[in-house]
Amino acid sequence: MSNQQILRPSEIDTFLSCQRKWGFRYLNNIEPTPSPSITLGIAVHKALENYLINNQIDHQSTEGQIAQAGLRFLPNKLPRNYVEKKFYLPIEDFLISGTPDFFKDLGNNVWLLGDHKTCSAFSSALKPDELRENTQANIYAYWLFKEKNAELVKLRWIYYRTKGSAQAQCVEAELKPEDNDKNCEKLFATAQEIIRLRKIQPSTAGLTKNLSACFKYGRCPYYATCKQGSTEAPADQSKPLLKKAAHEDGDNATIPAPPSDKSRLNQEAFHLFIDCTPIKTNSAYQNIIELSELLKPVLEKIHTEKNLKHYRLAGYGQHVGIMAQYLEDYLHNKVLGNNTAVLSSSKTPEGIDTLQTLSAAASMIVRGF
Which one-letter DSSP state was computed for residue 81? Predict the structure, then answer.
């Protein structure tokens, strides 16, 4: 085992989410400082582990109060080795390691596989079809199929809300061997790519970054490092240039968007005006759109697909990532040529990441002073 590389589902999931984040964590070995929410999540997991093993829970502690909301979803009388059992599973020339929160033999070669998830809002919970595709669920189920001869795995993901009154929700799905094999084939191919990159040790800055993942579960712990190490110029470094342009050209300072991203190389894209409007003598725009108007179809799509009355009702930190992702997709599919001016503010109520997403897609940025 010592001669084989070991991968965990979390590493594969990180790679699939954002390769650059994976590089910071697993190539550069930069371990993020646990946030208060992660620390609380670990405490809740410990409380639930103790409950499954000893049928005891501290109802006076914060973690105990959070955990007790989901006790009704937990199985009774589990053997000790069915709770938090670490496994190693050989896959070709590497090992997959995992630690299921709990599992149970339901009889007739049917196994229950469970996992505890803490969240600030239930909007972050997976839907059943998403759970069937989930990296962790499929790898753990694969182990049950191979090691326990399971013919069907019932998934039970329990979400414990950490904000407001203690509540829990359960998401369930089923996996059959043929579906699991199909899903794991892709995951193990990703694992092989991870092993290849581990061997060649590429520069993390050269790995692909996924902007829509920056605020997926709160702010990415490598967000600041990624921005500093990327090819994008930090905003404060561009201020001297902007001030000079403003002094020479009057009220509006016009600068081309930096051609660091592929989207910015598209010189046919719209022009972004921040804290200013096109001057009459230089207004050849067929369409002038206020940011609020531009965002209406984006907000409607978020409402429809995420079942949220407003995107800010998503879990803590996630609303920013949702807006950035949906806006990026909208701008990619909607043709806004350079005869279109989009008017925004540097202090837009939709947040700095909305402005950054717009800036990345524009072919020219005009700032007012």
Answer: G
The one-letter amino acid at 185: E
Give the strands of the sheet with 252-256, arranged side by side. 252-256, 364-368, 271-274, 340-344, 287-290
Distances (CA, A) of 175 to 138, 140, 187, 297, 337: 8, 11, 15, 36, 46
Rounded to whole angstroms, the Cα distance separating 242 from 252 reads: 10
Amino acid 298: pLDDT: 86
Across the beta sheet with 152-161, the strand order is: 102-107, 110-119, 152-161, 168-175
Three-state SS for 215? coil
Q: Split the chain (369 residues) into runs of 10 and give each run's mean pLDDT.
A: 82 96 95 88 96 94 97 93 95 93 97 96 92 98 97 98 94 98 96 95 93 80 79 32 32 41 56 82 77 87 77 53 77 83 77 74 79
Distance, CA of 97 to chain centre: 22
What does DSSP say about strands 364-368 and 271-274: parallel, antiparallel, or unpaired?
parallel
Any idea what DSSP says for residue 265?
G
pTM above 0.90, yes or no: no
Task: Give span(s): CATH 3.90.320.10, the chain.
Answer: 5-205
Q: What integer pLDDT is reported at residue 138 of this predicted model?
A: 98
Sheet holding 87-91: strands in order across?
Answer: 5-7, 94-98, 87-91
The topology (CATH level 3) of 5-205 is Lambda Exonuclease; Chain A (3.90.320)
